[in-house]
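input
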Amino acid sequence: CCFCLSALASLVLINPAWGEQSDVLVYGATPSGIAAAVSAAKSGARVTLVEPTDRIGGLVTSGLSNTDFRSLESLTGFFRDFADRVLADYQHRYGAASAQAVASFQGTHGEPSVNLRILQQMLAEQSRITVVTQSTVVSVIATDLIRGRQRIVAASFRSTPRAGTVAEAPTTIHAKFYIDASYEGDLMALAHEPFAVGRESRRQYGEPLAGNARGEADGQVQGYNFRLVMTEVAENKLMPVAPTGYDREDFAAILQIFTSGRRTRVFADDRSGIFRAHMPLLPNGKADVNDTPHAPVRLSMPDINDAYPTGDAATRERIVQQHRYYNVGLLYFLQNDAAVPIAIRNDARRWGWCRDEFAESGGIPPKLYIREARRLVGQHVFTGHDTMPAPNDARGRLHRDSIAIGDYVHNCHGTGRSGSRFDGEHDGEFYKHVPPYQIPYGVIVPTKSENLLVPCACSASHFGFGALRLEPIWCSLGQAAGWASSICIAEETPAQSLDIDRLQDLLHADRSATIYVSDVPPTAIEFPTVQWLGTRGAFHGLAAADQPKPTSLGGQYSEAFPGHAVELDKPLDAELAKRWTQLVTEAGADVRGPFHTRRDFVHGIRKRR
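output
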């Protein structure tokens, strides 16, 4: 693990009396950044959303359409709103019971072009948001404060020059508050916040799966690859062409896995192929094609990524091009090379790019899937301890300062590779199941800058980050950052000492969960109060630890995690009523009876402020 400051960082100390152009500046129009911008705008703030590329939406609009989560009940807040709109879009265009609406899986499996349109609409609804694209942060301007703190007063951005034009001089944007929602954490690093890159040792945080084979720290980051969107539908299929510089000898060694019989397929929805086409298919016969865990041939290339997180633009572009060459060149070889067995060639040629996706980049997603880059070292470092089950309880560890929830696994597609590209295996791969978990506010809070939050490149160990690096969770953290910025501005308070109760109230009102409750959805009238009560520990102890595994819905998806229902219509026994009353009183609220059921108790809670 490398704790460091960016060698390219530029921090300038100036007089804080400079003017402001925005209340909140959000860097990175990832889904997390869009959630942050929308939430801040809802509070009345003027928001500038700056994106370094020409396409908003991050990976959700660049190929990652099979969203990573476990149960639908875990989706709340901004991401749930987004998914509901995607579903409504399919229902409006094709019919409520159409194949497209069903294939969207409640709106979580939208086509990239649909996801893009919906996110654009969500931004357009907020008149206080100004979107700036193709602008990369190059410096951060801050004032020194006491106690090792600083306040950011401006950031400078350089526009990406168009072909045949000269790069413009950097533009400086002044704001009251800053949110770094980039996958890479570039603005955070330019502000000289401490960050980590790579794997910690097993000893540092006491995580059994941390570090390399000897449990030692290193600089390896999780593997990247393109999330290819492909189709078998003939009228929409565009056959791949050889990438620039293509040399068949770079791929010829793959023939051995077919001649040896170790692989008989190219595309599969399990580990029997090379290109993993997620099932069920996306609407309109498309597939999100991904890396195949534990396979002998992988799309991810973890052994070439380590220089990316802190690399300059040229270094990053070189790594992106290496991935593009390998991912596209491998498929082209399997589809066209005469040495490939005809049955394998035919299987490969069943699939092609989609004519109606990524036309500007030849059918290939424009963005590489950056699973992990820099990680802030903030107020709270999220580790494997944060997802451990509470003692003798179905639920995970209680975080009363929670701002988001997660329902997935700790996972890593590998950080290195032993052997050749076509005869070896990934190192550092893990997948560990845990119950749904809460995420503390401190994971987005830096230690130095009083007006900065970091929801994407957030504070976590390498192992802990494997449970946070999912778009629904990043959206929830971005949503929290947006509302938190409004509190900090209104109350003139540093992010480090924000009123967490106030933030949680705003999140609950905005239908974002801070604790996993499987049977009280965001649409329920009881949702805000149930979330408030549960985040104070009321639902811990309701179910024993020995719960059955959740019922699978296929692939990574399942029904709600057992033992996490509140059962509002269940009679409220005296012992539980006493415990809940004590929690409510300690939180500075009152509860008025009579109450015969748990629902009665929830409706009887009255907050004093």
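quick obs: The radius of gyration is 24 Å.
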